[in-house]
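pls read this protein:
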Amino acid sequence: MADHPHGLEVEEPTLRRGYKWVDRELARMDPDTEWERMIALYVSHRVPEFALAMMIYPGTMHMMQPALGAATLDHTRKLETKPYRRFQDGNDFLVAWMVDGVSSAAGRTAAERLNRIHMAVARRTPNLPGNFDDKDDFVYPLVLLATFAH
């Protein structure tokens, strides 16, 4: 138990038990060549599903900050009409990329699906600002995802 400034007893957070082999495996791996497997091991055994969800919500909020991203998200109305579907889609993409791996069949399928979704929006609304007309429209969300915890 840790000391709390208000005298409360607070249990120290601990990593899930029974995964010491994950730490040993990660320590022996080469991050330059085995980065994808390292991410998969870490995320699948050390990151609770709730934490993955917490990447989706702030990520969506960050995407809505620039006016161009907000206009596209607003136009699709998915956040309004299907918020749970939007969350589940985002979670499914993250799991496919971070647990299965970006080069896995599931990771490639997820990327193809997301590209189809985005291209369908782009085709239906060719004059919408921020509608994937600029490569930065694609890079921005990836940078947000990669730098989320930093």
About this structure: Strands lie at 2-3, 9-10. Residues 10-15 have pLDDT under 50 and may be disordered. The chain is about 65% helix and 5% strand.
